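Q: For a teaching handout, I want to show students what a protein-ligand complex looks like in token form. Below are the inputs, and the small molecule is copper (II) ion. Please produce the holo structure.
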Amino acid sequence: MQSILINGRGQFNCSIAAQFSENTKKQCTFRGGDQCAPRILRVEPNKTYRLRIASTTALASLNLVVQGHKLVVVEADGNYVTPFAVDDIDIYSGESYSVLLTTNQDPSQNYWISVGVRGRRPKTLPALTLLNYRTAPASKLPPSPPPEIPLWNDFDRSKSFSKKILAAMGSPPPPKKSNRRLILLNTQNRINGFIKWALNNVSLSVPATPYLGSIKYGLKGVFDQKSPPRSFPMDYDITKPPANPNATHGNGIYTFPLNITVDVILQNANALNPNESEIHPWHLHGHDFWVLGYGEGKFRQGVDETAFNLKNPPLRNTAVVYPYGWTALRYVTDNPGVWFFHCHIEPHLHMGMGVVFAEGVNRIGHIPDDALGCGLTRKMFVNRHR
Ligand SMILES: [Cu+2]
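A: Here is the structure, written as tokens, with copper (II) ion included.
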């Protein structure tokens, strides 16, 4: 990765903050209309702005900071949260936030907006642009260096941010009990010499024919009709590399009855290398889920549920599982369809880090041809009326 982009713009081989840096990056010179010139955020003094922030990264976890300004988080993944003020926010791949920013600083100055990498060792410099008070010339650089991005591996700091996110007053609370529980052990494995990711020892490898059409039209043999494991052996040591790093490819799915409550416990573990466990931002299609809690080590069934937040857990569609920890989610199967639940780190997904949930597929009427255009359903159903 050569550059992080803010609104599509990033600098490569030069920096707009070169004067503050000891490394050899040269000062960027822009002549106007340059492709890589930063998009400057222009603001009036003494107003409150709502900034909508989303991360569309394939790999990196990000941190955003606006020099000299507090960010008041009010929304996450499309749901309001209890407002809280921070100096910077973490944004994992697939997440979105709204923050309120009040322009209450010296209006004769400009301020750095910096977006840097967290969660894995940064190999790219932070992206920079300016918060420009209209009362100051847009070309005027801030008098001090850009703010530091918090240490990439300060996971306590990351967790503390995640735990501040709570539903806004009046948000729908989760059902008090769940009907099903799935515990998904996240492991890094080797299959035929290739590095893969697996859930309960199954590395997802999707069939050519779309699941929705296969189920609706009863096409047997498209995918494994047996459900993948709902748990993993409780003596698995999550603190060490897998004793047996083998996993299997699989394309089976978890099918749930309509309108039941499902708990999903994401369980992190050591990767293939000793002393290595990565973060994974898990993203669910077709639903929001409540984030009931985060914990360290192995999830203790019958114990850790007592600490679930059933009062004001945030409704989200993406949640992180931290190194060597677990994350508990709850959702209601109220949306007929077939839904991916996967790590939003793109390479991890393609290395098998996902599962598939289905509910109420018999309730679905017409499936558009566009959703059938691969594999067997393409041959059998597409353009059938032509
Ligand atoms: Cu991942």
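A: Two things your students might notice: The pocket of copper (II) ion is lined by residues 280, 343, 345, 348, 353 (CB under 6 Å). The domain at 180-381 is CATH 2.60.40.420 (Immunoglobulin-like).
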